[in-house]
Amino acid sequence: MEKTNPCPFCGSEKVEIIQPIEAYKVFGVLCTKCIARGPAGKTKAAAMVAWNGAGRWTSVEDGLPEGRNKWGSAWWLVKTPKTIPSRAMFSDGAWYAQAAGGGTYRVFPTHWMPLPDPPEDNRD
Ligand SMILES: [Zn+2]
Questions:
Q1: Where are the domains of the chain?
Q2: Is the model's pTM score more than 0.85?
């Protein structure tokens, strides 16, 4: 299991993944020092990604992305054993990269993470 980042509010590393209300079957990261709570996720991995945000790799063995990223698309940053990190789409349980001439081809990443946030100064 990958590690969760320290609490962004108080800096404590005493954070844990909890299932606050079992009936809803969602997970969330809780800081046990200041009681800050991260966004809910359907899996422990999703809750960890929501807490950590961009910049942290999640092993595909720990969890896979759900739904769309904060850009509204299904593209993620992935790392495969033989390539530098690149963009790939997760759809129906499989990963696809965009081919240079159009179309897609399957890739088999070991890790993934959300794409980074846009820059503050966005002139396009
Ligand atoms: Zn805290």
A1: 1-52, 57-124
A2: no
